[in-house]
């Protein structure tokens, strides 16, 4: 016999998935196929909307993010998932173990919550940086290194990540320069030199373009470093404060989870970039599928032994 945990409570959803990117839609696909009544909140553009083509995702190579998401949305809807174009404003855990979810249009109640709210890249305050994103400004060579291969690169941003980024970029170009006011130790400089990475101790203050092409970066000392692509080691922060209102988070606001995506609050999971800042698109999609069985198991257990109201 199928145990549909919402069969006698049409006003209650089994799961509220917050976020309709790769992670959220993947989780929703599993949950709807497991016959759980699932609502998915699509609050707007996702992080990968800044790129023109998807790469390193088997079967989707060269697809646009819009095509990828539209296909995912259609698959979820085909199994009964309900996608709402709403931003979730707050979620409150109730004494009876359920969750009240306030969207920008209405409130619903859910037995479990999956946070797939993603992250935000905090770009340095350098003129022209945001405008160049996805064209000549890049955040990770895994996404776009091949497309700008063999061009001169400049890397700048967080000092603690720059040495690794500079080395890594040599997989795509033999002309890499790290620009930073930070004074790297001699061991780091020797290693970078060994990989052929040049270093300039200065601060990036602007991008120099000709038409739609990047030609160099400007520095605080008044010099320019020629380049055709820049890679920024930018810090991350959680895109939403929902996790902080529900469960344990780290210093950047990301939910702390176990290997199954469970947070410190029973009934709340976090997946994709909402908990893993380095997850790529394929990793985020996998995280949604990975938590599916655990969410279903939780719903079945709590339907058999519901929490007593306090």
Automatic annotation (TrEMBL):
Homodimer. Keywords: Flavoprotein, Membrane, Oxidoreductase, Transmembrane, Transmembrane helix. Its cofactor is FAD. The keyword Transmembrane helix applies. InterPro entries: FAD/NAD-bd_sf, FAD/NAD-binding_dom, Ferredoxin-NADP_redctase_2. The keyword Repressor does not apply. Coiled coil: none annotated. It comes from the Bacteria. The chain crosses the membrane at residues 12-31. It comes from Paenibacillus lautus. GO terms for molecular function: oxidoreductase activity. This is FAD/NAD(P)-binding domain-containing protein. Residues 13-286 form the FAD/NAD(P)-binding domain.
